[in-house]
Amino acid sequence: MVKDLQTRPPLLPDRHPQQDFFVCDIFDAAPKGDMASMEHPIFSLSTKPDTRIREYERNGIQIAIKPSVDGVATIYDRDILIYCISQLINGMNEGRSISQTVRFKAYDMLVATNRNTAGTGYTQLKAAMERLAGTRISTNIVTGGKEIFRTFGLIESAEVVRETRDGRMQEVEIKLSDWVFNAIESKEVLTLHRDYFRLRKPLERRIYEIARKHVGKKDSWRIGLRTLQKKCGSNSKPREFRRMVKEIAEEDRLHDHMPDYGVFYIEDDDQVEFRSKGTLAVAEPQVTVPLLDPDIYETARALAPGWDVYVIEQEWRNWLREPPKNPEAAFLGFCRTWADRRK
Fold first, then answer.
1. Cβ contacts of 118 within 8 Å, gap of 6 or more
2. Average per-residue pLDDT for the chain
3. What single DSSP character describes residue 199?
4. DSSP letter at 261?
């Protein structure tokens, strides 16, 4: 096994060089008033149809993830959400109004997420949209001392709006759920290393997500193996899960392939430690935006009446992940969204 780990490239080929992306931190995402946390696994790690109903409970909040006949959405299906969220974040950065409906070219999405652009890539994209639309999340929430049941999906709908003559999808339109869209408007996004799309194993992707969320820019973070397995949503036996995690740690030791964080299995404590590789300072530079035109603040006050526009400006500057092409337009767009969400 060690020989295989030494000779087999741990990352998929970089088929289409691309820029960094944003990922919605979907496990603590909105609606904030409905759930204190959604750090339970939403996406399946299985490459075969997963039709299990998974139920979890945390602090009295019960969560059930229910698949359609096609199975629950997989961690690879999540690429579609990542792409949609990236497009909306880019629009917000440039001051454009955004909506829950996102239209994109299928080819662009496949390229951006390092997928195959042959016929199988389009077939897999269609199947992924069906699983995303079919997966339902149900939970009990408490409002005013009363328990209320709520259910929602990852996306509301998906439609192929244009096809080529041979029937291959060309443009796709997806309507995101309120849950995902609210997370975008709430700025709950994290920069995702583009090598995420090159990770071969579903478990590697999930482990990276967990590390990205919990370690952030800290030096390190530890978690017990049993808790990690629950967070990953792995259906393997504990002994097999331990073997898979140790294999990922050994591959990372040999090839340094895991993005942003090294993975170490601590035998004595049966824990996994994630250690920062010091790459996030490069991935998330401090965004510097020059002073805005003083005349823009009157327009900002009209868009966000009753609010201190200088407070909004500070929130906007803290939220930016990259310098906008038109800072004034981007700021006004942020003011408009800020006010609309607080009506």
1. none
2. 82
3. B
4. E
